[in-house]
Amino acid sequence: MTVSTEGTVAVLPPGGPAAPARPIPAVRRGPGSRGTLLLLEAVVAFGAALVLPLLAVRFKLDPLDRIAQVSGLAAIQLRFALVGLLFIAAVGLVMRLRGGRHFDLTARIAAAALAGLASGFVAAGAVVALHGTPWPMFGLNGDSGRIVEWAHAVANGRPSGSPVYPPAPLYTLGYYAEWFRGGNTAYAFKDLQILGAAAFGPLVYLCWRMLLGPVRALAFGVAPAFALIDAYKPYSQTVLVVLVPVLVAMVVSLSRTGTQAWRPLLLKGAGFGALLGVLFLTYSGWFLWSAAGVLFAALLYFPWRTGRLGRLKGAAFLGASLAAFLVVAGRYLAVMLTEGQTTKDYNFRFDNFTDPAYYLMWRTDMPGKVGEWPPPGEYGGVGLFALVTFVCLGAAIWLGLRRPMVVTVAAMFISAWVMRMYIASHMYETQTVQLYTRTNNQLLYCGLLLCALVVHLVSQRMAARRAESASTTEGTGFPGREGAVIGTLCALLLLLGTVSSSMADRYMPAKENTYRILPWVSHTITEQDGSCPTYAPGGTCSKDGDQSWLSFIR
């Protein structure tokens, strides 16, 4: 038995066509068109993402003091919990008013709000970490310094220092600095680090809403993404967690083109192509690692069996997507195909010296004190978490073999795995890295998504069974969906609050060889007016900031 996305149960006999659908009892919906409601969700999500950072601006604490950091995290957590509980309480209250007529609308708003609040938590942590200094994380050192320099160049009509570096972040930073920071790209980058982290939750939530309902999008799309949220360079990870649902939605749309009208088909294809073009301009690495898997899924779900007209429509959909993509990103794609081939990455990092099959935890380029790594596991050196993800990979394919969403995510996982091993296998011969360790993030995200999709598929079957039992035997089966929604929102509130606190804590300033050194250095760099940041240790600072931490890695 399968449950369609339209909410009907269909029995699929072995080797035969689907039996007539038996409708599930209609879901109570509030007023408003679908487009209006999605716009409302977007406004709520982005608005909620700004609440905690704005509140954190008023905190009075020394961000370099560990007790102050813990107090700051607790203060953010308290506000996160209180605001989140208000939304959940509203869902519970509406359930009892007017026969629950507005329950779905309120649950929709609450799910969007939790997505925004969760990433707003991490952004608020960045506000605390950088309190008292105008500099972005790491100041003008490392990647931060190069991005600031290149953005200043492109904003003034000059080429950046790297033609293959994604142009969208550089132009965004450059023009933002011109509009809001008087052309100061360094100080502007601090703003965009905070705003970029805050936008993470709403963006991934809205993309998963193309495929799932509000609460399911939050549980099965947004929650897994929070293992990757980043406040230092937020755009790269945001592109990954957005790209996956966009590509899945595109494959789903492709599978349906054989029966669609021409106008919406072409508009939808062009929309996907333009969106993919914007993502490619923002960070292109995920496209390389996903390409083979998405191509496989597209060929598998191309409307081959819908006749000549259906195949023509499928080709037109892909053609419109390709044309729009080339209009948006064709120039940068040409640069990547030419100059990108000669760009070599010789920077060997911590992860390049570990087992290439281990991807479940990325310690970043600055791993701090590390003992045995990867950590020893119970089963042939493999831990329980790895076993669960691999079991879920098989279970997801078993339960959702006919579903483009499941197959596309699994194909992207396998594609990234193959590309990872291909690049790593040539590492000794070429003495280059080519960023293969960044596939960690795609493998982890797709693995977590597959685990979530297993729960999604099982829960759909449970709902279908409950609908069947309710129509035959009153009082049996599982409790109502209202209780499931409220319980899920409560669980996600605690889960996302805990994960967001952990991810915010890893950016709290400390003089050590971890990501905590990034904001620490920001507090030790001389400001442009010659003064020191408010909480500079000992009231001293320098042009490049405190670089003595480098002795920890020698």
Q: Could you explain the architecture of this structure?
A:
The protein has 554 residues and is mostly helical. The chain is 62% helix and 1% strand. It has 17 helices and three strands. It has a three-stranded antiparallel beta sheet with strand order 1-2-3, covered by helices on one side. The longest helix has 34 residues, at 439-472.
Termini separation comes to 60 Å
Rg over C-alpha atoms, rounded to the nearest angstrom: 25 Å
> What is the succession of H and E elements?
EEEHHHHHHHHHHHHHHHHH
Mean pLDDT: 90
Number of helices: 17
Helix content: 55-70%
Tell me the strand order in the biggest sheet: 1-2-3
In terms of per-residue confidence, which ranges show pLDDT below 50 for 5 or more consecutive residues?
Answer: 1-31
How many DSSP E strands?
A: 3
Strand content: under 5%
Largest beta-sheet characterization: 3 strands, antiparallel
Structural class: mainly alpha
Shape verdict: globular
Task: List key phrases describing it.
single chain, about 550 residues, 3-stranded antiparallel sheet, 17 helices, mainly alpha, globular, 3 strands
Outline the secondary-structure elements.
Blueprint: E1 2-3, E2 8-10, E3 22-23, H1 34-56, H2 66-95, H3 103-129, H4 142-155, H5 167-180, H6 185-208, H7 214-225, H8 234-255, H9 262-282, H10 285-301, H11 307-338, H12 384-399, H13 404-425, H14 427-430, H15 439-472, H16 481-505, H17 517-522
Antiparallel strand pairs: 1-2, 2-3
Helix pairs in contact: 1-3, 1-6, 2-3, 2-16, 3-6, 3-7, 3-16, 4-5, 5-6, 6-7, 6-8, 7-15, 7-16, 8-9, 8-10, 8-13, 8-15, 9-11, 10-13, 12-15, 13-15
